[in-house]
Write a structure and sequence with these properties.
Layout: E1 2-6, H1 11-22, E2 26-31, E3 45-48, H2 54-64, E4 68-71, H3 78-83, H4 85-106, E5 110-116, H5 139-158, E6 161-167, E7 169-171, H6 189-198, E8 204-207, E9 219-220, E10 222-224, H7 225-240, E11 246-250, E12 256-257, H8 258-269, E13 275-278, E14 287-288, H9 293-299, H10 308-326
Parallel strand pairs: 1-2, 1-4, 2-3, 4-5, 5-6, 6-11, 7-10, 8-13, 9-14
Antiparallel strand pairs: 9-12
Helix pairs in contact: 1-7, 2-4, 4-5, 6-8, 6-10, 8-10
Length: 327
């Protein structure tokens, strides 16, 4: 089957392309390379294209005629979305609108949409279920929730079958060490902490120590990127086998505080590093932990790397490979 993957040169998208290629899918990657890397595309063909440009997107869609579209391309930084909301609404919503319109022209019948736990805002109860209220507290979360609504409305009108996956915190690198994040100045906690341990960044900032959590720092559910991609594949297979369109949380169902993550990074890397404490960032909820029961029950997904130390280890080993390559 033919799969078009948007954002397939990026961190998560490239891991998904690797998995699809290994499973024998015919893959076409669409990426504007604003954050993605050409060399991260290990399977299929890469077309450098911005999804905000509709005409070439439609031409490509009509030429390739995919059976499935997996939509990863988006701006994803919560704190940046607070400062630049219009960029997030334009990029994340206009791109999705263009994509759906082109999919209609090409008769695409299946879609996997990359969403986020940010749609829940500050949850009233934990772990978070898909049926819980969706009240985002930042523009990024709202852009994802609006994107979900577009997909759902389009599906009802056009007969599309979809899986919407709400990610919690994705981290780690390919266990085979063929892929990993390549940002020099990452913002996500584990990736940044590993960079600090390596000496690429002088110190790690902790944003807020007065949250209503056991140690005062934010608590998150961290999932290994390969487990996340396997969840996408299981949802796709579930739809192809006749399953109904649905929304799925993707996480492990357990949370770690910022301070707990720092401790594990120091243990795994064997390196101490400076930590500086500063004010909260706007748009950060105190705690986000998934209830993945629906995903497990309906699709049979089972995580393989549910271990924070292993997540950090794969990322640390990947960083050491990059260091050797750069030298």
């Amino acid at each position: 089957m033919k799969v078009l993957v948007t954002g397939g040169a990026g961190y998560i998208g490239s891991h998904m392309v690797k998995l699809l290629g290994e499973k024998g899918y015919q893959v076409l990657v669409v990426d504007n390379l604003s954050t993605g890397k050409r060399e991260a595309v290990l399977y299929g063909r890469l077309v450098v294209l911005d999804l905000l440009l509709y005409a070439p997107l439609e031409e490509l869609m009509l030429d390739f005629r995919p059976d499935i579209v997996m939509h990863f391309a988006a701006k994803i930084l919560v704190h940046e979305s607070v400062r630049k909301p219009l960029e997030y609404y334009e990029n994340n919503l206009q791109a999705t609108w263009n994509l759906l319109r082109a999919m209609k022209r090409a008769g695409v019948k299946y879609m996997i949409f990359s969403s986020s736990a940010a749609v829940y805002g500050t949850p009233s109860s934990l772990p978070v279920k898909e049926s819980d209220p969706t009240v985002p507290i930042n523009p990024y979360g709202w852009s994802k929730l609006m994107g979900e609504r577009m997909v759902e409305d389009f599906a009802r009108a056009e007969g599309l079958k979809f899986g919407i996956l709400r990610y919690f915190n994705v981290a780690g690198a390919d266990p085979e060490l063929k892929l990993g994040p390549v940002k020099q100045n990452p913002t996500h906690l584990i990736a940044r902490a590993v960079k600090v341990a390596k000496g690429d960044i002088p110190y790690l900032e902790v944003y807020g120590t007065d949250y209503p959590t056991p140690d005062g720092t934010c608590v998150r559910d961290y999932i290994h990127v390969t487990d996340l991609c396997n969840a996408h594949l299981r949802v796709l297979e579930y739809l192809l086998e006749g399953g109904q369109s649905d929304v799925f949380n993707v996480g492990y169902g357990k949370g770690y505080s910022v301070l707990e993550v720092i401790r594990v990074v120091k243990e795994v890397t064997g390196r101490d590093f400076e930590v500086r404490y500063t004010e909260r960032r706007e748009g950060d909820p105190p705690e986000l932990v998934a209830d993945p029961a629906k995903l497990v029950t309906l699709t049979g997904w089972k995580p393989s790397f549910d271990d924070l130390s292993f997540i950090v280890k794969t990322l640390w080993e990947w960083e050491l490979i990059l260091e050797k390559h750069d030298s």
